[in-house]
Amino acid sequence: MVVLSDVKDEDEFDEEPGEVIESAPPQKVGEERQLSNSGLKKKLIKRGLGWETPDFNDQVTVHYVGTLLDGTKFDSTRDTNQPMIFTLGQGQVVAGLDHGVITMKKGEVALFTLPDDSRGILQFEVELISWIKVVDVCKDGGILKKIMEKGSGNERPGDLDEVLVKYQVVLDDGTVVAETPEGGVEFHVKDGYLFPRLPKVIMTMTRGEKAKLIVQPQYAFGEMGREAGSGLHSIPPNSVLHVNIELVSFKPVINVTGDSMVLKKILKEGEGASTADEGANVTVRYTAMLEDGTVFEKRGIDETQPLKFITDEEQVITGLDRAVETMKKGERAIINIHPDYAFGNVEVRRDFAIVPPGSNVVYDIEMMDFIKVLDIEFYNVKALYRRAQAYIETGDYLLADVDVKKALEVDPQNREVKVIKKKLKQLQADSDKKDAKLYENIFAHKIKDSPVATKRLKVEKEEDERKNEEAVRMEMDQIADSAAPSDGGLTVDSC
User: Which of 56, 94, 381, 440 is 20 to 30 A from residue 66's alpha carbon, by CA?
Assistant: First the structure.
């Protein structure tokens, strides 16, 4: 066991030792570097694997040999072949050594040199065997999560998502007080489960992650504990819980309308990144139900025909319309819709059942296919207007200007398009002023207040504007040529 010296003031080790390494070339075998102003030095003996390194609060397993500067050995795990396990940053080893360990990779061997008040200069040859990632969930030590097995990917559940979790809860004396069935339990994160802070823990986990939790009483059942009943074991007051937990899977839930009245739970991810936006021609199949499971309508199921409609045209209930606009091709989802976005307070008769007034409805729906409207209608004014709005939001004023001009060619008196044209003109003027100011600042240090430079800047700006106008005009001409009528009417390319 490493002999502990008096713990030094942590301010002496405030420097981030990793920064020295990260900002410099990779350390070579045999090379020695200083890691902090406190005198901590590291000499690399053997390279480690990968790129990950442990952090403070992580539980590391190491072999080490401790010697004085003259080579006298005073401690070693090699003698017993029993590696040491300790938590970084908790003062469990000679002050400063853990600042060296956090720079190591798995399997790495390094020689650390550091000063000690009582014994002078110490050296430790350390091999980092492995470590367990420890997350301080509440940032106060109240819930510590040791990651025993990493999950897949980087995606973590949100508070609306539905999760499938397995766990076992044990007290300090080994008593099992809670355990899920073999298949786990499914619940929405926001609804909570087992103990109040479990949702916070779950939102730090990835799919397939396995972890051990140490939950202090204030975040478990506190001074009251929990009485036995309904198949539950009692939990004594002020009990620390030890929880083995696995996030088996989760289904993302999207708050479509922002007011939690239309919730979409994704059962199967769709293809690509495109969604069926406003004005798209969509083809879907679904089973529509009441909350109690009563089916009142089917489309594309059991020999019924799929439903085809155009989004944002009030051809279906609002909640379904809005949810479909967020779906990708091939995506399957469960959509829960509040009456305000469904059939309201009226009774509606459907194919298989009556929908009572004020009913929440549920759609198990799959997006079979969709086309964006401008792929088939070059001069759809509503679609051009929407796209121009989107371009303005992203600062693509030139592309927005092209769509506004196309829309006004079709409908010169369209009030909404005229309003957005005026807004676009002002935004372009503001952008031009900012650009001009930027150019002035760039050239000011070269020719300060030079009338020649100002004139050159003006000429260059006018030339850029002329080129932009020509580019827009050329695109308009090309579109007009491709959309020109021939022999009896307008033909539309459906590519």
Answer: 56
For residue 299, give Cα distances in angstroms to 311, 332, 348, 351.
17, 14, 17, 10
Burial of 214 (0-12, 13-18, 19+ CB in 10 A): middle
Task: Name the least confident of 21-30, 76-85, 185-194, 440-449.
Answer: 440-449
Q: Could you give the CA distance from residue 155 to residue 204 in angstroms, rounded to a whole number?
A: 10
Q: Is the pLDDT of residue 416 over 90?
A: no
Spatial separation of the C-alpha atoms in residues 458 and 456, rounded to whole Å: 5
Between CA 286 and CA 489 the distance in angstroms is 38
Burial class (CB in 10 A: 0-12, 13-18, 19+), 267: middle
Query: 257, 249, 243: which is closest to 187 by C-alpha?
Result: 249
Q: Dump pLDDT digits (tens) for 232-251.
A: 789 999 999 999 999 999 99
pLDDT value, residue 315: 93
CB 62, CB 128: distance < 8 Å: yes
DSSP letter, residue 371: E
pLDDT band at 290 (very low <50, low <70, confident <90, very high): very high
pLDDT tens track for 138-176: 999 999 999 999 999 889 999 999 999 999 999 999 999
CB-CB contact of 187 with 193 (8 Å): yes
Nearest to 265 by CA among 211, 195, 189: 189
C-beta of residue 243 within 8 angstroms of C-beta of residue 337: no
Query: Which residue's entry shows tokens 């499938």?
Result: 164
Q: What is the mean pLDDT of residues 69-83?
A: 93
Identify the CA nearest to 319 among candidates 387, 255, 389. Answer: 255
C-alpha 401/C-alpha 409 separation (Å) is 12
266: nearest Cα among 164, 199, 364, 187? 364
Q: Are 63 and 55 in contact (CB under 8 A)?
A: no
> CB of 298 within 8 A of CB of 304?
yes
For residue 343, the model assigns a pLDDT of 96
- 101 band by pLDDT with thresholds 50, 70 and 90: very high
Report the residue count for the chain: 495
All residues at 6 or more sequence positions from 300 whose CB lies less than 8 Å from its CB, including other chains:
284, 285, 286, 306, 307, 366, 368
User: How many Cβ atoms from other residues are within 10 Å of residue 42's Cβ?
Assistant: 26
CA dihedral (213, 219, 222, 225) in degrees, to 10, reads -50
Encoded tokens for 257: 């309308």
Q: What is the pLDDT of residues 361-371, one digit of tens each?
A: 999 999 999 88
**From CA 222, how far away is CA 236, in angstroms rounded?**
9
Neighbouring CB atoms inside 10 A of 312's CB total 18
